[in-house]
Amino acid sequence: MNDVLPKSLREAQDKGIEFFSGENCEWKLELEGSARFIEEIVGCPVCAFANNGFGDYLFLKQKAGAGFGEEVFEFFHEGPEIIPTKEDLETLLGLKDRPASADAYPRAVYESGELVQLRDHVQIRVWVEFWKGWQDGKVEYVPGISKKKLEHENCGLKWVAIRLQIGQICPLVSPENGKLKKVRFVRRGHPNDK
């Protein structure tokens, strides 16, 4: 069956990818091949290649002739409903970076009004270590600037990632005005800052 699968799906198998994130959930890469219950709805042969453990599947339709196309479809068992995914197969599998998001969500800004930028030096209050007061950190991820990562942008909300000595913390970017709470801007970083 591998010879009829798209190149990116074979590459994901070769790299040992077991799980990957979609827009709404995590998927398990599991080549199930033919899925008769989906084929009855779609009206053509399909290759189910991932499931979320709750009865939903990602699948490819067979192209005219032999092999399967690259367009990915999502089967929701509740409907049943089938919709095409917004991302291509290579991006969905994590083989290609997602582009920075470009939507109507407000840009991230500090409470002082400056726009949040990558490598900014900041101070932040961390509830886990509240007795230490303001802690120094550095901005690692900014929605709309950094390549999109679903762990920082999902369910209609977005977070800025800040690296601290104790690890990473991700304050919410307010959906109303873009402000970060309990984060103080100190200075801009430079591209060669480590």
Describe the structure concisely for a colleague.
The protein is mostly beta strands and about 190 residues long. The protein is built from three helices and 14 strands.
What labels describe this entry?
194 residues; mainly beta; six-stranded antiparallel sheet; five-stranded antiparallel sheet; 3 helices; elongated
Question: What does this 3D model show about the protein?
Answer:
The structure is a single chain. With 194 residues, the protein is mostly beta strands. It folds into two domains: 2-92, no CATH class; 121-187, no CATH class. Helix content is 10%, strand content 35%. It is built from three helices and 14 strands. The strands form three sheets. It has a six-stranded antiparallel β-sheet with strand order 1-2-3-4-5-6, with helices on one face. It has a five-stranded antiparallel β-sheet with strand order 12-11-8-7-14, with no helix packed on it. Strand 11 (161-164) and strand 12 (167-169) form a beta hairpin. The longest helix is centred in the first third of the chain and has 8 residues, at 7-14.
Estimated radius of gyration: 21 Å
CA distance, first residue to last residue? 46 Å
Considering DSSP H and I runs of 4 or more, what fraction of the residues is helical?
under 10%
Major beta sheet, strand line-up: 1-2-3-4-5-6
The proportion of strand residues reads: 35-45%
Structure class: mainly beta
Order of helices and strands: HEEHEEEEHEEEEEEEE
Shape: elongated
Low-confidence stretches: none
